[in-house]
Amino acid sequence: MQADLSITALILEASLVVQLVMLLLLAFSVFGWMMIFQRRKIIQEASVQALKFEDRFWSGVDLARLYQEIGARAQNASGMEKLFYAGFKEFARLRSNTSLNQQQVLEASYRAMRVVHSRQIDKLENNLSLLATIGSISPYIGLFGTVWGIMNAFIGLGSVQQATLAMVAPGIAEALIATAMGLFAAIPAVMAYNRFITRVEKIDNQYQNFMDELLAILQRQSSAPAKEGAA
């Protein structure tokens, strides 16, 4: 009687250890794809919102007016909007303090933006380390299941007098499925991780460039009254 070598039959007839390995890899794959879709949405939104805000910022709008607009919806502000809001808020609060010089006011504004910047990047990178973990350990877990299944297949041959390929083929086939599942879980996770890290770095550069540009604008604004008074 010929053994059923369909994938479903091989999985159902696999040893308990190999089945547990397959179940774990299936969970890794499902969890990995969930994180991929979630991270993709969040990172894409952050990128689009940053471009929109930059267009708005460089359109010539009054910064005080822009600050008030963002303040009215501070809870729903995007990452770059929060950078601007934090920096301009600190600048406006300390600018009238006569005990502080221009450099101290600007440094305080930049520190406020740095805190928000760190939080926003942490938010974008959230769960990316889990994708990297899935991508790195899944092949090894699959390989463990394969080694275990092949070992059991050859151990089973020790109890028979005449070994044939038909006898060992199902055990080896079910073991190789574990390797395939490990690669199926790992490859999308690694590709997504590399892609997301690159995009987060690009957004990080956008944020840092904006912070430097805003600081230069605030420096010019803080110098304007002094120049006018000197004139």
From TrEMBL:
InterPro entries: ExbB/TolQ_transport, MotA_ExbB_proton_chnl, Tol-Pal_TolQ. The keyword Cell cycle applies. NCBIfam families: tolQ. It is found in: Cell inner membrane; Cell membrane. GO terms for biological process: bacteriocin transport; cell division; protein import. The chain crosses the membrane at residues 16-37, 128-151, 171-193. Part of the Tol-Pal system, which plays a role in outer membrane invagination during cell division and is important for maintaining outer membrane integrity. It is a multi-pass membrane protein. It comes from Pseudidiomarina salinarum. Pfam families: MotA_ExbB. It comes from the Bacteria. Residues 78-208 form the MotA/TolQ/ExbB proton channel domain. The Tol-Pal system is composed of five core proteins: the inner membrane proteins TolA, TolQ and TolR, the periplasmic protein TolB and the outer membrane protein Pal. They form a network linking the inner and outer membranes and the peptidoglycan layer. One of its GO terms (cellular component) is plasma membrane. Keywords: Cell cycle, Cell division, Cell inner membrane, Cell membrane, Membrane, Transmembrane, Transmembrane helix. Belongs to the ExbB/TolQ family. This is Tol-Pal system protein TolQ. Its main location: membrane.
